[in-house]
Amino acid sequence: MESQDTSFLRTLCSLRWLACAGQAATIFVATWLLGLELPQQQLWAGVFVLALFNLYVQLRVHDSNPAPVTAFGHILVDVTVLTWMVGWSGGIANPFGSLFLILIALAALALPLRWTHAVAAACVGGYALSAVFGLPLQGGYFNSMDLHLWGAAANFLLSSVVVLVFSTRLAAALRERENQLALLRERFVRNEGIVALATHAASVAHELNTPLATMTLLVDDIAEQGNDNLEMREDLETLRGLLVQCRERVLALAAPAEGARSRADVSIGHILEQWRLVRPTIQLRRNANAPLELKLDPGVGHLLQVLLNNAADAGERSGRAQVDLDIRVRDGQLYGEVRDYGPGFNANDAALPGTLFNSGKTDGMGVGLALSHATMERLHGELWMRPAEGQGARVGFRLPLNTTEVNA
Question: Does residue 34 contact residue 141 with C-beta atoms inside 8 Å?
Fold first, then answer.
């Protein structure tokens, strides 16, 4: 997002072009329509210098330092040129001398207090110089009072336009900045909770590692003693697979963050095999061209399992234990969609923030979905929820392949 200081410099550029056009038009009107004898060379030199400076600024605004001192330097140039123009066109009698107040107002709205005071001092000094050394107006088809009144009216209209344009743009920039800050605060609170959860999970993982290892050894001993019972051996083999999976998860939680990634990277096919082992009563239907060998970021694998578990829970509550999975690679993106056969949700709520958490099909999975949302943001992806045809809901995601693919 563009910084507030950079936005202020861009606004100054726009207003400076307006000032150049207004000064040029004023010179033509005062000379040809009002008959004033103005020093053309000096006045046009001021317009040319201001336009040249603004062109330079506009070309370098991306590279410029958006510090308050930079903005002060830009306004100081405006003050100098305005002092020059007012001084050569009537001095204190020039009604456009009040434009110094516009520069002070701009600084007050966008700069820190000390820099605003500096701009105000520069404007007061510029106005004083133009008043003391200003060249009086000469000639003209109208008397001086009429000229002053018409000039004051024109100055009022010009000042109104400048204040309106600048205030509107600055207010929009401030609102956008406040929205970004609110979003950052929300993410910070959520991430703080995730960090606390991860710390607690690592502590619990260390405590669970030993009993899980003991349970695995006991299952092996029981399997050796029950060699003649084929059904028992199959059940014990399934139980052992579940214990191994649980222990792998526990070890991943207990491992340091820098080493967990390389051990946790798994293919889509392995993720689905692990899920079938945990949910053997759920019928999983997937597309035939699913990229099963594609290895993913561990967070994406967790996201996929969370979506599958939520869909399975919703289907079981409705008496149809079936989940449909469509996952494919297209245009450098990984697209996935999980469809359940549960009660569904209100379609009017699908676009609301947090619908995935409040849809009624995520009982007990709030933490998992919070982590999934954090994963989507970290990998610059998208997560959405839509009603399915007939019955159920469809939850999908999109992720850039270069951030999810580890080793195809």
Answer: yes
Q: Say how far apart CA 281 and CA 142 lie, in whole Å.
A: 97
Separation between Cα atoms, residue 125 and residue 142, nearest integer Å: 31
Q: How far apart are CA 201 and CA 253, in angstroms?
A: 7
Q: By CB neighbour count within 10 A (0-12 exposed, 13-18 middle, 19+ buried), where does 196 fall?
A: exposed
What is the SS3 assignment for 294? coil
- Return the structure tokens found at 199: 């710390």
Q: How far is CA 143 from the centre of its chain?
A: 58
> Whole-prediction pTM value?
0.46
Nearest to 50 by CA among 81, 71, 21, 28: 81
Q: In the chain, which residues have pLDDT < 70?
A: 1-5, 61-66, 139-148, 150, 190-207, 209, 226-228, 249, 251-265, 345-372, 402-408
Taking the C-alpha atoms of residue 268 and residue 339, their distance in angstroms, rounded to an integer, is: 17
337 forms beta bridges with 326, 396
User: Which residue reads 């563009």 in tokens?
Assistant: 2
Residue labelled with tokens 């009993």: 211
For residue 98, the one-letter residue type is S
Amino acid, res. 229: N
Closest to 311 measured CA to CA, from 377, 366, 393:
393
Give all strands (DSSP E) within 139-239, no chain letters.
none
Q: What is the pLDDT of residue 46?
A: 92
User: CB-based burial of residue 331 (10 Å sphere; 0-12 exposed, 13-18 middle, 19+ buried)?
Assistant: exposed
Instruction: Show Cβ contacts of residue 64 under 8 Å, excluding neighbours closer than 6 positions.
Output: 6, 9, 57, 70
> Which are the contacts of 346, defined by CB distance < 8 A and separation ≥ 6?
none
Nearest to 38 by CA among 137, 151, 159, 116: 137
Q: How far apart are CA 399 and CA 373, in angstroms?
A: 12
Res 370: pLDDT: 63
Place of tokens 């009563």: 281
H-helix or E-strand containing 53? helix 40-60
d(CA 194, CA 370): 8
3-state secondary structure of 96: helix
